Amino acid sequence: MKKIIFSLIVLVFLFGLWFYQNRKPEAIVIDLPPEQSYQDFVNRNDNTEITDNTEEDEPNQIVNTNTSQNVNANTNVSQPIQATSINLNVPFTSQAPTANWEQPFQDACEEASVLMVDYYLDGKSIPSPGQVEEILIAMVDWQEVNLDGDIDMSINELAYFAENLLGYDDYDIVEDLTVEKIKAYLDKGLPVIVPANGKTLANPNFRNGGPVYHMLVIKGYKDGYFITNDPGTRNGHNFVYTYENMMLSIADWDEQKHQVDPDAKKALVLIGD
Asked: According to the 3-state scheme, what is the secondary structure of the chain?
């Protein structure tokens, strides 16, 4: 009898442990700041360069691969006064705009992320779901021809994609990403496209625990939370992640090993006219 009771206790414990490890996180709800357009920032005519005043042994570097020059983030530049919160009105689309999650839409998060930022910088609204679907298909087709058919794009490949398909000759690939670097770009009205390990992103809307590799747009922040447009779910507009969860999850795609690299904290920032 004691053995039966002990076995039941072990089973209950193991079930509780499994449930704890596999429970879905709850979506975070905050009072969102008002959304701001890119034109709001353009009108300020603020040409101050982006800086990062975090103390480190070596100066932080913001890398613009288009000029192959590093911008020293701690010298000869001034820091704009940082807001306490911000929320850019980046238009939203899911990577599966008509709820068709078959290929190529299952892996179209990179294309959807770039598309959202492109429309934001141009001040345009996202077209109908059917039209977005056609645009994403065309983008994926271009990628397959010009990027060796790899369905996953690293940040470097995404920059090449944005430059050669959409004509962005001004962009930053940001190395050694930090919360302060992300906020500095947002303060300039510039969304930040980040790659991530979807398995560690705290998003209850993801199926099967989330994608192995994912991409999304950070569009704002407030009180320790990042506000995003996450194309991996139809509920991704203004989806909120904690700073900690986002920075833990950011991981670029290793093109050689074909896996996420948790040590590669990188981002792409497209810069409009």
From this structure: CHHHHHHHHHHHHHHHHHHHHHCCCCCCCCCCCCCECHHHHHCCCCCCCCCCCCCCCCCCEEEECCCCEEEECCCCCCCCCCCCEEEECCCCCCCCCCCCCCCCHHHCHHHHHHHHHHHHHHCCCCCCHHHHHHHHHHHHHHHHHHCCCCCCCCHHHHHHHHHHHHCCCCEEEECCCCHHHHHHHHHCCCCEEEEECCCCCCCCCCHHHCCCCEEEEEEEEECCEEEEECCCCCCCEEEEEEHHHHHHHECEEECCCCEEECCCCCEEEECCC
